[in-house]
Write the structure tokens for this entry.
Amino acid sequence: MSVPLLAQWVGALLPLLAATGAVREGDTLRAEIASAKVSFLDYCGPATFSATVRGNRELVIEVDPRGERGPLHLRVVLPSSAEERWAADVVVVDATGRPLLVRRSGTEWHKLTIRVPPERATYIVRAVQPPGPRLQVFSDRDRQAVEPTTGLKAAIATWHEGRKAALSIRFDDSHPSHLATAIPVLREFGFRGTFMVCPGRAEPNSRWRSDFQEHLAEWKAVARRGDQEFANHTAHHRGASGDEEMEAEIGQAAKAIWDLFPGRSKLLALNLGGGTSWETTKPLRYYLDKYHLFDASSGSLGMDDVYGNRVAAFREHLRRHIERGLWCRIHFHAIGQDSGSSEATFRA
Ligand SMILES: [Zn+2]
């Protein structure tokens, strides 16, 4: 099939798919928002609330304190189906439309906690329409075309070079063993790892050491060689308690990595870090778009030996992903130390 013909065919199909896709998305979204679970966090007292779905994108929560005098914490757990798709587009506003601070864990962006005063008030959990065009995912049937007169076939491959599935091997927290052990082993097998680094500098009055800054020359050498991939694990792996802090944590890490790869694509994976807590009024999408990131915080299999039987778990995980043609992700922390994964597990 010639290129212009393919372009014509794709051009004709796209608006149709986009139109039907939008309608279907609205209904699904409404149903998903309706299945969100709302509660007061760690609370047994007189206050009550009611929650109703409004339109396709809003959950309206009315709080009635009924004599409660202390602050309340509203907990909203979106269905897990939201996590990979629209949790990054959710904000919470008050009745006047003012965005409120929402606290979330770095690895569970679909679970929201909002601190509210003990007053009768309305809060709106809103799935914002993401700005700009979104990627359209085609069904298997829509990815194939046959040119009727010649019988020529064309298909859009799911994975690079038409492979069955993809595997990403991630290494978190810029641990020195990644330089000493992981990278040499990856090179032995011709693999490219994804290194989630925390490039922030150590700060006065903080016990946090910057493994990345202490081994900066070695990380720079890895970047120059260009056979491994770096990703954003935020500057200091400590979360944030406001928009400015969150922007600094994500932005500093993004800029530090871009500086190591001059002239290369700015697109990086983001992982906000296990055990971190983030407070922001903005949707995660704001940070993702501004710093050319995609969220890779969830959906990965932890390979630390403490989880037990890792090699068998990995084989099963990989087999299931190959069977279904999916993106398989696993992650390590320190390699070959007392904590983390032994070199034997890693090599296996
Ligand atoms: Zn981490």
About this structure: The CA atoms of residues 18 and 143 lie 15 Å apart. The longest helix spans residues 3-34. Residues 1-156 form a domain with the Immunoglobulin-like fold (CATH 2.60.40). The chain has a mean pLDDT of 86.
